[in-house]
């Protein structure tokens, strides 16, 4: 029974990731394609730009993430959990639509800084949340000890705090780097024609120019670069995670000095701005229908808008609702698959299946277009003639969702003292009961959080789903992107109206998850030390 | 322990697949074609002919039509060429003259001579050998202008490609990048046709010197940069469609006498879209009846108001509001698809060098 646990995630990743990607590489990769990309100056520029902007995005995101993480970890204040939730919201907003709304309003296109700024905006939570979690578990006493021994606050930070937080810092920096390196929507939209990433170029070569070979070769290069990073990051995370001294009590204190009050206030204000501005931008764009600003909203809610609007247009807007329901069921399926596969994978990895750790992360590093094309040419004949099946889309989303479930539950599983399991077993519990009471009990919280993330990622996913053909099962982001590109102002506005509602719902889900989670530090009244 | 289990799972999965794939390949296809319950029509995402578009086809033949959306036109054709011989559907709608050549090379389609071809302008079928695909619609990509801008600035509307490089029109034009936008590609091809393959680079250098703006997609250009759309951007000249003026005019309530936008007829590049039977379909006969339906008068007359294109059939009646606001270019520009396929990458690179670096 125990030995069967790794089989499910291993089969999943083999069947739905390794098999399609290898099929694509086998069909399309040639030595000549690698020679061509090595010889092309344009592609060298793209590779250099991809690397350069990813490094910049990572460094800057970590730099601006440290201060809010510190405030959230060290101070207790009203609205702290709300602020934590709001900082998370940008990460789950649909990039394409928000990017379009932003750039049109602020007119910041075609610039490297727009790309880097957007990466910082969307990925801030990736740094702040894990860092704040780890930081809050770091006993204050460690810092006091250092200062008592004569270190300045800066030296304490440099020599004690940062080294102790190295594990979560490396892990979140790696993820920001991964997301920035594989940036697709943001790079395409804000980078403009002269700043393309490898991921965008794979899409352009494979789907726009029909050079599937060049696309596959670029995709392979990207995978190799990121696999190296993933291997290094997984190794470092393992090396550093056990060293974190976990404090059993809440080390947060109210702000005291005016300086501390200002820090708390700016984090609160900043988190509100992060959410309010994109929603405002979307709503603003949804009102641009000439003399009747609410036209798109009226059409969306089924009011009579007959004058000047063709029946086809109204039908297209009504199609959004169908797409929304469709996306919701796809999200539900994606969450279910991700949870089953992800939790089983995390258990296997915690028991030493390191290969699985890297393999489960690999889909994040692989160009979505490659995975999509791989699906189409791999699942094209009986008995796996699945390419028109609706469930390939949730499977694709689960490939992206599983790493989140694994990342969320793995540190907890690793931190469980095995002696607790031995004790439970000695007391007569069956293996299943041991798992349920010791492991299951603790990972339920991170797993619920991950489930929420997978749901929202699935609702906003744009890459792999856009390559798969579909008959009636179009997802919301695809319909949105299409509406925005239609030469009819009301459709354009309706797309933004729907995106605005999606952003508001996403915000509500994130805030809901934050408040539904039990408090991470149950007030421990019986301190044994102090 | 884990590595062993994983290797076993991997080997087992691959083995099972290998066996199943082999056995399925050897299964022979039935020789006599039966009438299918459903035909799959592969189309690009923006194919929206209306919900009841195929009702009469289903009534006549008893065959339902399932529309399979396959992404934008480029993605759709990459996938169709990659799956040639084992297609995702039976009929494909919407391969255009910039993409058809690769599909011919990949043997994506099987030939079928539709009856309606006789009613079409032969120019639509120029360079398409052996009825490999059937023309279904056409449209133009042209420079559009904001009528109010030119009248309020007392500036004459530019008439030719050369006018666009004149100082009077400095910083007024926004175009799409041909590397990422099919509209941009069509306009690049228009300049190549007008200025010859050796002269277009120089032309783009002068456009750049005259402040042309290049953006990634049509919607960015039209909705954000163009002054004549709801976006109220800074550029009064934009590369868009010949059907943009009617679309704009009909979006205004009440519908005005003249459209707020119009086109420079001399800059129009003709885009022809085709439909074809996908090679490898189990129902070539049923598929051919669907091609006949797509080129029928009934279906063709739906196209102007649902897809904003002209029907390929010359005898299809156009809706009056469509005719009223549309400027028909007297001599639209065009290039042979084989030339496009052969030189596209090179031309796009030359464009990139001339304007973006």
Give the largest interface pair and sizes: A-B, 77 and 79 residues
Low-confidence stretches of chain A: 521-530
For the largest beta-sheet of chain B, the strand count, sense and barrel status come to: 10 strands, mixed
Separation of the first and last Cα atoms of chain B: 55 Å
Notes on the structure:
Chain A is an all-alpha fold and 530 residues long. Chain A has 23 helices and no strands. Chain A has helices at 7-28, 31-39, 41-74, 80-92, 95-106, 112-136, 140-148, 153-164, 166-181, 185-190, 198-208, 212-240, 258-286, 295-300, 311-350, 354-365, 368-378, 392-415, 418-426, 431-460, 463-467, 476-484, 489-516. In chain A, helix 4 packs parallel to helix 13 and helix 5 (95-106) packs across helix 13. With 357 residues, chain B is an alpha/beta fold. Helices cover 41% and strands 18% of the residues of chain B. In chain B, strands 1, 2, 3, 4, 5, 6, 7, 8, 9 and 10 form a ten-stranded mixed β-sheet that branches. Chain B has helices at 2-26, 55-61, 73-82, 100-105, 122-125, 147-152, 182-209, 218-225, 244-251, 284-294, 297-300, 303-307, 320-325, 337-355; strands at 38-43, 64-69, 91-96, 109-110, 134-146, 173-176, 213-215, 237-241, 261-278, 310-311. The chains are: A mainly alpha (530), B alpha/beta (357). Chains A and B meet through helix 1, helix 5, helix 11, helix 15 and helix 16 of A and helix 1, strand 2, helix 3, helix 8 and helix 9 of B.
